[in-house]
Amino acid sequence: LVTDFYEYGWCQSFHFAPRYKNETFLESIKRAEYHLCSRLGMRPGVRALDVGCGVGGPMRNMAAFSGASIEGITINEYQVRVGNKYHEDVGVGDLCHTTRGDFQNLPGFSDGKLWEGIDYGDADWTGTFDVAYEIEATCHSPDKSRVFSEVARCLKPGGLFAGYEWVVLPDRGYDPSDPECVAIKEGIEVGNGLPTLATPDLVKAALEKAGFEILETYDANQGVHDRHEIPWYDTLNGKMSLSGFRMTHIGRICTHAMVTLLEKCRIAPKGTTHVSAMLNATALDLVAGGKKEMFTPSFFFLAKKKNDGPVSSSSSSRRAEEEEEQQHEEEDPPLSSVSLVDASVGAAERRRVHTSHAVSKRPRR
Question: Which range among 108-117, 199-208, 338-347 shows the weakest confidence by mean pLDDT?
Fold first, then answer.
């Protein structure tokens, strides 16, 4: 249900992006994806891993743009089925493939336990990929050291890993002693089925403990309120247009009323109304977090696997986990009575880099 709502209300790329005033929403989404291609050096012959790929919208755009071969992994069986169909429908089935799996335990993992129904058979991705990326996906991981260690294990020595991560920003607008900040943070977590949101420092610590050398980090939305940019959360406010009405407050009320009626008539599956209400509430929290600059969905990182051989997820240090636990204890008061929902660029120079990319054509096959 969440997948269908995201496709209806957003697009097949389930993520945000920094946006200039001369860009459409979809142009900004693709630019963020092409930026990853550029920083990772994706081109024909490169094998890439998409960590938490959803229905594969970014994967298809990036494969068509770069010519690289991309393997995606998602725990959602429905997303695997529709994603692989979409790959074939748009003509990138020879470059893109989606596997059902758990990014905490990628094929070839040495310890851990898979979710029921996942079977990798004899597959082992250890040392398989040249590069890897995640787009607002590993924020769903309860253990970043673990998922980053698994990514490192599946990369070749020296392989690059890049991504956009959801984080709170203590150096900007997030104040853990401010009840309003805490309420917004909790609303984002509950509405998106997230564990406690990390800080940039905790993301960097987890990468280092997983065996990565950090090459670059910054908030791609640092210019969110620059006069030349459209805030990343603006689309959630919606516009009074044919395409934007469904994202306005009135549009969301109309959609919610419609799905409530459909569920009562047993046309829509049970739970549709609940999911609609949850997504409406979290949209408000995301907008509030963006306006206060206490949260960004686009903390960019670029890291390189160290050339000291594959990293075992079981050998990662507990230090990053302990630091994360300590931060949670210090910053977070007890959660409100709302129950957790089990749902699955810096300065001008950096922004100029973020917009530049060389267009490469997909090779004929």
Answer: 338-347
Residue 241 CA from chain centroid, whole number: 28
Q: Does this model's pTM top 0.85?
A: no
Return d(Cα 309, Cα 158) in angstroms, integer: 9
Instruction: Report the 10 Å Cβ neighbour count for 215.
Output: 13
Beta bridge partners of 132: 49, 161
d(C-alpha 345, C-alpha 222), whole Å: 5
DSSP letter assigned to residue 267: S
For the residues of 4-16, what is the DSSP string, one character each? HHHHHHT-SS---
Contact 46, 38 (CB under 8 A): no
3-state SS class at 292: coil
Residue appearing with tokens 């810096």: 346
Give the C-alpha distances (Å, rounded to integers) separating 157 from 151, 173, 207. 12, 38, 15
Greatest CA separation for the chain: 60
The amino acid sitting at 218 is Y
Give the list of residues 6+ apart from residue 357 with CB closer than 8 angstroms, or none. Answer: 31, 34, 35, 37, 38
At 110-152, the pLDDT tens digits run 888 887 789 999 999 999 999 999 999 999 999 999 999 999 9
CB 7 within 8 Å of CB 55: yes
Burial call 52-66: b when 16+ CB within 10 Å, e when fewer: bbbbbbbbbbbbbbb
